[in-house]
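Q: what does this look like with 2-acetamido-2-deoxy-beta-D-glucopyranose bound?
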Amino acid sequence: MLLALLWLLRPALAAQPSAPEPIPAPLRSLEFGQLNFLHTTDAHGWLAGHLQEPSYSADWGDYVSFATHIRAKVEAQGQDLLVIDTGDRVEGNGLYDSSEPKGLYLSEILRHQHIDLLTSGNHELYKQNTSEAEFFTTVPNFRGKYLASNIDIIHPTTKDLVPLAPRYKKFTTKQQGIRIVAFGFLFDFTGNYNNTVVQPVEDTIKEDWFQEAIRDKEVDLFLVIGHVPVHSPEYQAIFKEIRGLRWDIPIQFFGGHQHIRDYAQFDAKAVGLASGRFMETIGFMSIDGLTTDTQPNAMGSSPVFKRRYIDNNLFSYHHHSGLDGESFLTEKGQNVSQLIAESRTALHLDQVYGCAPHTLWTSRVKYPSNDSIYTWLETQVIPDSLKDEWRSETPALAIVNTGAIRFDIFQGPFTQDSTFIVSPFTSGFRYIKNVPYNKAQLIMDILNKQPQVLRASQHDMGSPHTTLAPPEQLAYVEDTVADRDAAWDRRIPFRGGDFQAPLSGDAPSDKLVPGYTTKDDAGTDGDDTIHSPISFYRVPNCIQALVSANASVVPETIDLVYIEFIERYVALAAKFAQLDVDFSKESDVYMPSITFTDLILDWVKEHWKCE
Ligand SMILES: *[C@@H]1O[C@H](CO)[C@@H](O)[C@H](O)[C@H]1NC(C)=O
Ligand SMILES: *[C@@H]1O[C@H](CO)[C@@H](O)[C@H](O)[C@H]1NC(C)=O
Ligand SMILES: *[C@@H]1O[C@H](CO)[C@@H](O)[C@H](O)[C@H]1NC(C)=O
Ligand SMILES: *[C@@H]1O[C@H](CO)[C@@H](O)[C@H](O)[C@H]1NC(C)=O
Ligand SMILES: *[C@@H]1O[C@H](CO)[C@@H](O)[C@H](O)[C@H]1NC(C)=O
């Protein structure tokens, strides 16, 4: 009774207390169908939403409320809803990275969403204890929902190699009894720690269990979810394997990893949706005209697929659910928002370490430029901070991959949360001594201009979807030279002005809020919110900073310093540059026990005083 009373007295929480109000904007509605989906991917711990960006300011609690309303709404029409998440839930936000052990609060928050199907991403597998936390916590929290078609794990106690989760699942939907066979894949990832085994997708689909599953005659839809780009060789292979046997069964793919909004049309009955990153986007799909046991359809007619990329904010949520303010918030959703707020407090995520004098962008400005986060690192942070006491005054050239930086720094307070948002990685530095300066430059050239040489030459770097640059650029890096620009235009999340399609009949563009203006296989009408475009610039794979006592002299030899995470790439590039060094024997730790993240944080504390 008292609890209930307290609950009533609490101010109506929506989003996090410090989150900005969403800005009203023209919206495209959701087109519901027989079977509907909500999809998240690559959340990377952002369950509190974006506290400095109104367009993405709703939190996981609001998403819980939203999914509840959408489920009720479609079920009232006799339709079905499935909620999907395709991995990389971990690493990249203080809510995950700040706790010890990591993820303590996050997994507790995550479990409150009614997720129907989920998979692992590559980030769940980089470290032994991350995959084991997945095995012992997230898989049981979502028992019967978590799928791992191509991931095995060495059982932490029995030491047997076992599936991380069931390979696939057959089920029928609640309202219409639509018969679904679902799979959960990870792309052909090779960077996992050795306690997990990721079997290449192309091999997995030849296994008996998969072959049997796709021969099932009692199926209305194949549902392939995964941490796999929707335009990828892996999904092509799965599509061909299923379609080769089952010419008429619809296939719905959900994917991720590239951090982009994307939609792939495989054929008239098979499509795939990718739903961005960092809780910026909630992907929506509907399928109408499915032939089911109880609802026979005209022979051969194709189902109708509709897609929508929802901006994660309350303005969009209210519109799509047809509710507002008080009526939108569910008790459970509010509880989850409250849990997030309490977790953030317990983790001191609002603790301020300094104040950024102006915004520094990863890809919204040209590199190099004064507003580029990479220029800031090259010209200020690294030169001021890179110093190993054992190497005294030896000049050093530091190589940092641009993918080590994950997000922009906004003008204003730089907090405990910002630290992990900008660079969540725990890699420190290593170095090789006495490297001729010109060889080091050659290595930089190879890393930046010839990544395909590196990839083609060594299989364990052959994972087509890992790169030194931020994942948003993967679509570009992967394609052949001839296709590059077309691929770039098709897939990048933010587009330059010259690419924007006219939005006839919509509000004048000077009133629009800048944001996603996605172009995908189905056109330019995918985004729910009509935005003005944001420019997006390519960045190199790696940046460099020369740290030397005498800036007016180019040193003959240097300590070649690099982030540990990219050692394989640097070692291979060194081989191509004919630098005769055995990295496994001759490299050593530089600045022991300092990570790149520490380096940035220490610099901020010293240089960015708040007024
Ligand atoms: C994994 O181990 C590291 C180092 O001890 C620790 O900081 C981290 O919190 C652990 N992560 C998990 C998920 O247990
Ligand atoms: C995994 O790698 C560690 C070194 O990081 C090594 O000691 C261990 O033997 C390897 N285990 C297997 C099963 O290969
Ligand atoms: C919300 O939290 C209150 C207070 O802890 C609790 O009594 C209530 O059962 C929770 N409601 C739901 C739907 O989880
Ligand atoms: C960039 O910053 C430097 C140092 O503060 C300044 O000298 C230079 O004029 C700036 N360049 C531009 C284009 O603003
Ligand atoms: C830097 O090197 C130049 C050229 O050798 C020399 O003239 C200058 O004195 C040096 N400066 C410092 C600070 O050592």
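The two ends are 47 Å apart (CA to CA). Residues 352-469+538-607 form a domain with the 5'-nucleotidase;  domain 2 fold (CATH 3.90.780.10).
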